[in-house]
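Appendix B: complex inputs.
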Amino acid sequence: MKALVDGKKCTVCGVCSDVCPFGAITVGETSVEISDECTLCGMCVDTCEFGAISLPEVGTGPATDLEKYSGVWVFAEWRDGTVHKVSHELLGAGRQLADKRGVELSAVLLGHQLDKSLSSDLISHGADNVYVVDNPQLARFTNEAYADVLVDLIGRKQPEIILAGATSIGRSFIPRVAASLKTGLTADCTELDISEEGLLLQTRPAFGGNVMATIICPNSRPQMATVRPKVMRPVKLPDHQGHVEAIEIPDEIFRNRVEVLEVIPERDQTAKLTEADVIVSGGRGLGKAENFAILDELAQLMKAAVGASRGAVEEGWIAPSHQVGQTGRTVAPTLYMAVGLSGAIQHVVGMQGSKIIVAVNKDREAPVFDVASCGVVADLFEFIPAFIRKIKQERE
Amino acid sequence: MHIVVCIKQVPDTKNVRIDPDTHTLVRQGVECIINPFDLFAVEAALKIKDESDAKITVMTMGPPQAEEALRDVLSRGVDEAILLSDRAFAGADTWATSITLSAAVRKLGDVDLVFCGKQAVDGDTAQVGPEVATLLDIPYATFVKKIERLDEKFLKVTRQTDEGTEVWKLPTPTLVTVIKEVGEPRLPSLRHKMRAKKAQIPVWGITELGLDANDVGLCGSFTQVVRVFSPPRRTDQVIIEGSIEEQVEQLYSYLKEAKVPGI
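Resulting structure:
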């Protein structure tokens, strides 16, 4: 299967051939040929000014009565008795989607011995309904228990859209929910909207963040997406009224195949990269393990986590849990300070979603300056200690 | 013990660049590599084979040239390889990919463990592993950094979460998706290279897998890409040069103005 060219519209301009990432398009004298190398990525479709290229139709999936499904749901996460920030963000995004669709916004809360304050907190962030399942089997997260309960609830209430945080929990169990329901799922979205036809438009980075893709799920329900933390805006609606419903789940839902033996919180606060508002990251430019102390001091001062490039981890200067990038963590803090790292693409893909990127490097040509919102061309060993002194001085 | 490792050939993202004028992907020099996380999955399987009597089968769904990726991992010590290739597979989303991979695992029959990388670096979805496990109706654990075999029936895995680590006990058959910490991939050996060169790699398409063309590839997919575009670029870049004192002052006021936490 490959992209289709409409010979009547095609002007043989060749633009499609230039953008094809797979070299699948050959431009002849009078026509354009698409070879079997085509992966149906759609790059050419969007580039063609003449609307001459199209993709074959997506499958219709199992016969689903789409109209039956109504409402927007947010899977609400909590930690240590409080609602996780990402759930507030999802409610903010979900509120807009629900209003555009003219439907209700509901939050699903799973766990054991859940405090009532969690539900009221979700309502004051925009939820019209909170569905609570309080069950000892949900005290600790497992893919099966969480997914199978959510599948059961979806079967009962039939929402049209489900949003979950792209956290280590959401990204782990939501695919099981989608596969169990035989519906589509889009990972790690950074933008959500409703199309004219009422479909959920799910936009996410692809190819290591080099392109953005907008994805729809036209023929199956619910439409499901995980959403990258720290991207959507929460809303605070203190006077918003909502309804809390406790739902009983039959015991046979729980398969109990997996046993959680231990949950060990990270003791090293500086390694909590995905939650941090500020990350100070170091690369090979630091020269040796001892020099990470400079970054540690800055991080402590700014209440930041400490990140590292693959280079620094491979040198053994810092533990792999600190690694940001393609084979490490993907982060999107408010401030990312890249210190003494060149900005190889493998690193950049892990941090380019940060709101502000400050790069400190003495080499003005380093690629990190291409992604930086603010670049400081300086020797880090002079600049960082001076910057630390400045912060301390301002605080006094 | 039979271990299946699922791998994917991906465009090497470090060579993917955006043309600054046309805002489109520059394809020049885009080579294919084995998804880095999948090499960790291969290594995790080889580690088990080092210590016990295990057979490892690697499989990939892709175009005919994906055979190259299979020969690479054969040369690292994997026993057998299967290429899942059919024109009907093109354009598959994670669901349609999982349908194909799970059909292949089922066809093999006696599988105890399925290992995948945490995610592929071209799509970054991290969905195929969990979806394959769901379709096979076996339990799974994601983001695993350490795997121990407790006995014939159980596996103990250590998972990396956003907040720390978790230790889970899983009954076999089970599926595990792994991260870097399971171990650096070993290099090909001379002996295995020779074997990999000669190896016959079976190709399974929809006929061999007993699948309907409507259930795989784009036809079998639920999600559809409707638009691809370049990410918005930073237009407000500031470069600070000059003496260290000036630079410190400028960065401090820049961050103060942006109201970043920590300042």
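Chain B has a mean pLDDT of 92.
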